[in-house]
Amino acid sequence: MKASGTLRVYKLKKKSSSRETVYCEQVFEKSPLRVKNFGIWLHYDSRNLTTAGAVTQCYRDMGARHRARVHPIQIMKVEAIAASKCHRPAGKQCHGSKIKFSLPHRVLHHQHKPRFTTKRSNTFF
Amino acid sequence: MVFKRYVEIGRVAYISFGPHAGKLVAIVDVIDQNRALVDGPCSGVRRQAMPFKCMQLTDFVLKFPHSARQKHVRVAWEKENINEKWAGTRWAKKIEAREKKAKMTDFDRYKAMKAKKMTCRKLEEQYKFALGTGSSSMN
């Protein structure tokens, strides 16, 4: 039985002058049968008002996207960075003064007032 | 359906629920998809993050750069005279009427009933008069 979670890793050799790929080779793990602890340094772009808020958002996001629990995550450094240094497009779209969007399909806040009704509520405002 | 009111820097919003329900704020910056940094210097709302869910956008837009200081927001607000403009809108008047109706005492309801009766009676008189003067006035 193949070891679970095998991913193929490829190493690319690029020609230094034209940056074209010259050679592609699969790279194998040096000791696949040894259990190792991997620490991964992450850059998480979080747009927030406070440090605590940003860290909380990071934990929630890790849990949601990668099912990561609190225990294996260790935050190495938290720093407010300039907007130009942000990488993730989700955060970058909120930068600047030109942001403009509508709020489509506004769902009723008072979902139970009334709970039963004969007419469909308006969602366009 | 074309959208006319957008979330943008400077948009004035009415807070529909929460601790600051009923007040106006200006959107100073957008934090992420769900929240904005808002400030209401002339309506008694401190600068804070607020979810879009509890905001209802109005027709007013102020001019200031994103994340502008409260001072600039206040200057823009007073220059546009938002408080007065808001009080003149039908939206604000409807809210006021709703609040007045909720505060009505039994005596107020009695007065309203009597006033309604009087106007109905006057209308009925005019209608009967119009009928009486003959079909000429009706046709």
TrEMBL record, chain A:
GO MF terms held by the record: structural constituent of ribosome
Source superkingdom: Eukaryota
Q: Gene Ontology cellular component? A: ribosome
Q: Where are the transmembrane segments?
A: none
Q: What is an example of a Pfam family matching this protein?
A: Ribosomal_L18A
Q: Which InterPro entries match?
A: Ribosomal_eL20_dom, Ribosomal_eL20_eukaryotes
Name the UniProt record assigns to this protein: Large ribosomal subunit protein eL20
Automatic annotation (TrEMBL), chain B:
**InterPro entries (UniProt xref):** Rib_uL2_dom2, Ribosomal_eL14, Ribosomal_eL14_dom, Translation_prot_SH3-like_sf
Where does the Large ribosomal subunit protein eL14 domain lie?
47-118
Q: Which GO terms describe its molecular function?
A: RNA binding; structural constituent of ribosome
**Can the keyword Magnesium be found in this entry's annotation?**
no
Which superkingdom is the protein from? Eukaryota
Q: What keywords are assigned to this protein?
A: Ribonucleoprotein, Ribosomal protein
Q: Which GO terms describe its cellular component?
A: cytosolic large ribosomal subunit; postsynaptic density
Can you cite a GO biological process for this protein?
Answer: translation
Q: Does the keyword Ribosomal protein apply?
A: yes
Cited PANTHER family: 60S RIBOSOMAL PROTEIN L14, LARGE RIBOSOMAL SUBUNIT PROTEIN EL14
Protein family according to the UniProt entry: Belongs to the eukaryotic ribosomal protein eL14 family.
Give the protein name, as stated in the record. Large ribosomal subunit protein eL14
According to its UniProt entry, this protein's organism is Gopherus evgoodei
